[in-house]
Design brief:
mainly alpha, 78 residues, 5 helices
């Protein structure tokens, strides 16, 4: 789950650095992923991990996040 928070932070920083807003069509997916990650990690760990993600280059964030299958599996478990 930390991988999701990390990637959310990295994506947010990338959008901010380029002046590109989050596309409206992606808003609900991003909000749902953030809510799920925040609920599982807790607000403090989520915030720390998200913030760390904002400091990473794309490749670093992807490497640190780990395999996408693991992140997706944890996000979709209820």
């Amino acid at each position: 789950m930390k991988g999701a928070a990390l990637l959310l932070g990295a994506a947010s920083a990338l959008r901010a650095s380029t002046g590109a807003p989050l596309p409206p069509a992606e808003r609900s997916d991003v909000d749902a992923t953030e809510a799920r990650a925040r609920a599982i990690l807790g607000p403090e760990v989520f915030a720390e991990t998200f913030t760390h993600g904002t400091t990473l280059r794309h490749g670093q964030a992807v490497t640190e996040a780990g395999p996408p299958e693991a992140t997706l599996e944890r996000l979709t478990k209820t």
